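Course assignment 3, question 2. Fill in each field.
Student: A.L.
Task: Predict the tertiary structure for the chain below.
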Amino acid sequence: MKILVTGSAGFIGSMVSLKLLQRGEDVIGIDNHNDYYDVRIKDDRLKLLKNFQNYHHYKFDLNDFKKLSEIFDKYKFQVVLNLAAQAGVRYSIENPLTYISSNIVGFAHLLENCRNHKINHLVYASTSSVYGANTKMPFSENDSANHPLSVYAASKKSNELMAHTYSYLYQLPTSGLRFFTVYGPWGRPDMALFKFTKAILEEKNIDVFNYGKHTRDFTYIDDVVEGIVKVLDNPASINHEWNSKIPDPSSSKAPWQIYNLGNSRPVQLMEYIQALENNLGKKAKINFLPLQQGDVPDTYANVEKLKQKVNFKPSTTVVEGVSKFVKWYKNYYQI
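Answer field:
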């Protein structure tokens, strides 16, 4: 099977590509290699993929509609996995237009090509951030998510709505995945786990917002990869019981589905830091700060739909996951 993976040099994109290559799929990767964070780790992730003859890589941006269309024409994909996006809640507060260009215009170009080439299934990254001002826990796909608190979250909610329109008008099966705080080896250096690890090892202060009272549904990368592949293999279907008078926000009379992909076991941020301290053998020097603009205090995924539809539920604990990350980090940075 030929599968297009956008964002294939990114954290999640590279790890899913590796999994697909290992099971014998032909993977065509696209990534623009932007410098939002150190590109060297992107290059190193890519080296893992280029060991496989069934991997083909292209460096360009999804905003290049002509180039994207040429790739679709050349490879005749059956399935598309879109993980290309400008990430980061805090960065979106200072640079909102970047998110409109990358996450909305780029996604529109992808949808058009999926429609024109009659793709069997489009799976795309959304985010738990779409739940925004919601405080009902755990976050369920069956609840509305119409009050995002950042441009990043709004761009991802836009993706879900755009995908629904294409599913309805053109019968394009689409599945959106709301990721919950993904972490692990080969992750993004701009994320908390990387920053905390580096600072603790260098005996520098770490900034902890909301005075450490955050809870997060930390989800280990291997679980995320497994969940993505399970969804890829189960194309979105029509909900024949969908009631327009009481509309379910997570499904439709079109072949469109939304899934939470989280650990479903929220952990206090201070417990996360403690697990990191235990594995590093050093105490963190903490600078406690108020809740940052755009952040939400808590996240917690209801994953019943994922279990029912694709028979999968993440299981890696934070203790296990942080331990694996620290071992990888020390090896990668030769500490």
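Instructor remarks: The first helix runs from residue 11 to 22. The longest strand covers residues 121-127.
Grade: pending
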